[in-house]
Specification:
By secondary structure, this protein is α+β, with helices and mostly antiparallel strands. It has 2 domains: 110 residues, no CATH class; 67 residues, SH3 Domains (SH3 type barrels, Roll). The chain is 28% helix and 22% strand. Strands 8-5-12 form a 3-stranded antiparallel β-sheet, with no helix packed on it. The protein has a 3-stranded antiparallel β-sheet with strand order 9-10-11, with no helix packed on it. A two-stranded antiparallel sheet has the order 1-2. α4 packs across α6. The longest helix has 14 residues.
């Protein structure tokens, strides 16, 4: 039996998150652990689109997690936890998160991607350690008596691992912290 056949049978031909019966496909929950059905979910195109494009996320669509979070399928549990965690600022998801219990191994899987911090510049380009960026406005440097001028190139930046809004780099010979919203990748 193929993985897709297993998922169709397991889900009763419905999205495993919102129960929609249309536009269903296999979704691999990253980071993939094994090549079996427990690492995949059968989801509708609306759920997949919102998972992959968080800027399109509609919190009311995810009220369905109130039911699907109780699934016995580890991949569905992981997706439910991740979505509730992402939406917890809305209020109601925090209540569901407080009720949700995951086995230790499943919780580690759910949190695996949330530990990765992504730094992006003012234009949304992903920044990496060692990149060169350009300041897009004059910045007064606190603790030093100078202003970093717009257009200044900052080479070989380093990323602040626990804060996606901060990078570090040398300007005028001094190592400073720079907000990512004030730089663009060169």
């Amino acid at each position: 039996m193929s993985i897709e056949s297993t998922l169709i049978s397991r889900s009763a031909s419905q999205c495993e998150l919102c129960a929609s019966p249309s536009n269903l496909s296999v979704y691999v929950v990253q980071p993939k652990r094994n090549d079996n059905a427990d690492d995949q979910a059968y989801l509708c195109s609306v759920c997949i689109d919102q998972i992959e494009n968080t800027d399109k996320m509609e919190s009311n669509h995810w009220r369905c997690l109130n039911t699907s979070m109780w699934s016995e399928v580890p991949a569905v549990q992981v997706l439910a936890w991740r979505l509730l965690d992402k939406l917890k600022g809305e209020g109601w998801p925090q209540e569901l998160l407080d009720m949700l219990f995951l086995e230790d191994e499943t919780m580690e899987w759910a949190q695996a991607l949330s530990n990765q911090v992504t730094h992006v510049d003012a234009n949304g380009a992903v920044l990496s350690a060692g990149d060169t960026v350009v300041l897009i406005q004059d910045l007064k440097v606190k603790g030093a008596n100078f202003t970093a001028k717009r257009g200044t190139a900052v080479r070989r930046i380093s990323l602040v691992q626990d804060n996606p809004e901060h990078i570090e780099g040398k300007v005028d010979g001094q190592r400073i912290v720079i907000l990512t919203k004030f730089v663009k990748k060169k």
